[in-house]
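Lab meeting, item 3. Inverse folding demo.
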């Protein structure tokens, strides 16, 4: 794109715009990272059922986006995935196909879709990188979600080869922050722990963490991820996906994550581990070498600071956040 063309107004449609990452992008844009030539449109499942092709097409024809950040998905934690693998596969396949095909049909210049590190092969060498997505089956606990997300990469390649479309994808590690799903049963590990610590503090009971606490994860703060999404949308021109993550050296155990939350919320009770509960994958260490080649100076928010900010947001917004 030439400098002159850069002045053409962009209409950026964000699907899943009221979720964790959508809210973070909205905040970062509102706080000064947006540009005068960008119009941002955040939509949710209330605006259209993206599993329905006609509703998806109507949404695109209504807003006429030039660019799309595709975040909408059926998501859930380990235990929800284990129970509903077929549902995760079918709903996400429909959503992704409808969004990408509507983008193609309405002449969208660029789509940035959001994948997940859980899509990588279960049996693999570490650290995992962008070239390894299709090297073997994903972990059996969430194969439905994982395969549906992998297919975005296949579809992006197809649209590029057949139609020259600039559709790409990012692969964040475990995202957390304000507006997360803090549901203890169905949410991801960090927001679930934050809610558990909050309740344990209210009731004066011990905090019980599911599993051994030994699995290790790379956590990325949603506001850091939002800033990286803007860079990908504006600057990253590859169709091949890119991992958005803190470095390997910033991986923390579930125990360390729980201890960070305990400290942030000033919880004084006992910390217990229920080893009868499943741990899920032990580690999914991802390399951010590709990101660092592009952005060697990017500053991530320190983990404990990001946890503290998230805990404060949750406590302040408890009535709505716990739903």
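The presenter then showed the designed sequence:
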């Amino acid at each position: 794109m030439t400098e002159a063309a850069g002045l053409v107004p962009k209409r950026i449609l964000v699907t899943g715009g009221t979720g964790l990452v959508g809210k973070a992008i909205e905040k970062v844009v509102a706080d000064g990272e947006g540009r005068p030539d960008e119009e941002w449109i955040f939509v949710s499942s209330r605006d259209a059922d993206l599993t329905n092709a006609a509703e998806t097409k109507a949404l695109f024809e209504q807003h006429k986006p030039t660019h799309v950040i595709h975040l909408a998905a059926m998501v859930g934690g380990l235990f929800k995935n284990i129970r509903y693998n077929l549902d995760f596969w079918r709903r996400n396949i429909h959503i992704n196909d409808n969004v990408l095909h509507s983008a193609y049909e309405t002449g969208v210049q660029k789509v940035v879709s959001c994948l997940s590190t859980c899509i990588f092969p279960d049996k693999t060498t570490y650290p995992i990188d962008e070239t390894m997505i299709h090297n073997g089956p994903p972990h059996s606990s969430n194969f439905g979600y994982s395969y549906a997300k992998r297919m975005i990469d296949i579809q992006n390649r197809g649209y590029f080869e057949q139609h020259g479309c600039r559709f790409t994808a990012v692969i964040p590690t475990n995202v957390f922050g304000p507006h997360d799903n803090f549901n203890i049963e169905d949410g991801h590990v960090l927001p679930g722990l934050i809610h558990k610590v909050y309740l344990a503090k209210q009731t004066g009971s011990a905090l019980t963490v599911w599993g051994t606490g030994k699995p290790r994860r790379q956590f990325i703060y949603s506001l850091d991820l939002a800033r990286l999404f803007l860079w990908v949308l504006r600057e990253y021109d590859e169709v091949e996906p890119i991992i958005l993550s803190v470095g390997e050296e910033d991986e923390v155990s579930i125990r360390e994550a729980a201890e960070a939350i305990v400290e942030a919320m000033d919880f004084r009770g006992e910390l217990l581990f229920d080893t009868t509960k499943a741990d899920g994958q032990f580690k999914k260490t991802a390399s951010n070498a590709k990101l660092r080649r592009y952005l060697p100076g990017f500053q991530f928010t320190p983990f404990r600071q990001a946890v503290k900010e998230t805990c404060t947001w949750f406590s302040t917004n408890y009535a709505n956040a716990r739903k």
